């Protein structure tokens, strides 16, 4: 498990740079607001695997794990093997 420090910021940057999503708060409901659609979710999963070494199984595919930056950070902190890829 990695520390949560900096994960919110890194995820915010990833969403902005790679998915062109400007998220106003780490608690913003990405799914409910329509910021994160099904295609963007697939791209996000790929980015999480690439950036944090997260392996995502079908059991992990609970939408609550990806509803906000805060929930994604919790998910990543529990499963990540790499803190950051430069």
Describe this structure in words.
By secondary structure, the protein is mainly alpha-helical. The chain has a single domain (7-79), classed as Orthogonal Bundle (Non-ribosomal Peptide Synthetase Peptidyl Carrier Protein, Chain A), CATH 1.10.1200. It is 45% helix and 0% strand. α1 packs across α2 (38-52) and α1 crosses α3. The longest helix is centred in the middle third of the chain and has 15 residues, at 38-52. Mean pLDDT is 87; it is low at 82-86.
- Following the backbone from N to C, one meets helices and strands in this order, namely HHH
Shape type: globular
CATH architecture, please? Orthogonal Bundle
Instruction: Write the CATH fold name.
Output: Non-ribosomal Peptide Synthetase Peptidyl Carrier Protein, Chain A
Figure out the total of helices.
Answer: 3
Give me the CATH superfamily.
ACP-like
Structural class call reads mainly alpha
Helix content: 40-55%
Sheet with the most strands, sense and barrel status: none
Uncertain segments: 82-86
Q: In total, how many domains does the architecture comprise?
A: 1
Q: Could you tell me the number of beta strands? A: 0
End-to-end Cα distance, whole Å, is 19 Å
Instruction: Write down the CATH class.
Output: Mainly Alpha
Q: Classify the beta-strand content into a percent band.
A: under 5%
Q: Write down the overall mean pLDDT.
A: 87
Q: Gyration radius, to the nearest Å?
A: 12 Å
């Amino acid at each position: 498990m990695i520390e949560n420090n900096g994960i919110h910021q890194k995820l915010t940057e990833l969403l902005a740079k790679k998915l062109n999503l400007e998220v106003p708060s780490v608690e913003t409901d990405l799914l409910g607001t329509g910021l994160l659609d099904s295609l963007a979710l697939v791209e996000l999963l790929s980015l999480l695997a690439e950036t944090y070494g997260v392996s995502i199984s079908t059991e992990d595919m609970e939408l609550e794990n990806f509803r906000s930056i805060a929930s994604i950070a919790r998910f990543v902190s529990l499963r990540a093997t790499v803190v950051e890829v430069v």
